[in-house]
Specification:
single chain, alpha+beta, Aminopeptidase, 5-stranded mixed beta sheet, 30% helix, 24% strand
Length: 146
């Protein structure tokens, strides 16, 4: 397994992987080719894919505002889970954020995504009960059904 930077050329394989992950929530704006291209243009050094035998088997998108890192879409092919792919991606991301001089990272996880929450807790993330997440949709967004 190798980890390398995620480029827009990986989009089709990454989207296929996302669609294979039942816990993944996608929408037609942010997760479109154009939306991902915008993310990668802004965060060219903090998004990765894991490849095995030339096939994308994992992805992790992380962004930064210059002060903190934020974990966005993470996914590992369900058929490849339990092989350390997610941990290798997480370690790469957290090491990169430390090298950038950042001292904190955060993420949002759906409350019913127990495996995802437990994964990130094993990597040092702590659930915050003192925060509320608020969201405002600024344009048309449609959920992508699996």
């Amino acid at each position: 397994m190798t980890i390398r930077r995620f480029t827009i050329d990986d989009y089709d394989a990454v989207f296929e992987l996302w669609m294979a992950c039942p816990e993944m929530e996608l929408n037609d704006t942010d997760d479109s080719r154009e939306g991902v291209a915008r993310f990668l243009a802004r965060n060219p050094d903090t998004a990765w894919v894991a490849q095995e035998d030339g096939r994308v088997v994992g992805v992790l998108m992380v962004g930064t505002d210059g002060r903190r890192g934020y974990v966005y879409h993470a996914g590992v092919d369900p058929a490849c889970r339990g092989k350390g792919i997610g941990s290798a991606l997480a370690d790469t991301a957290l090491d990169t954020l430390r090298e950038m001089g950042l001292s904190k990272a955060g993420l949002l996880a759906f409350a019913d995504n127990r495996p995802g929450i437990e994964f990130w807790e094993r990597h040092g993330f702590v659930r915050r009960e003192d925060l509320s997440y608020l969201s405002c949709v600024l344009g048309r967004i449609q959920r992508i059904e699996h």
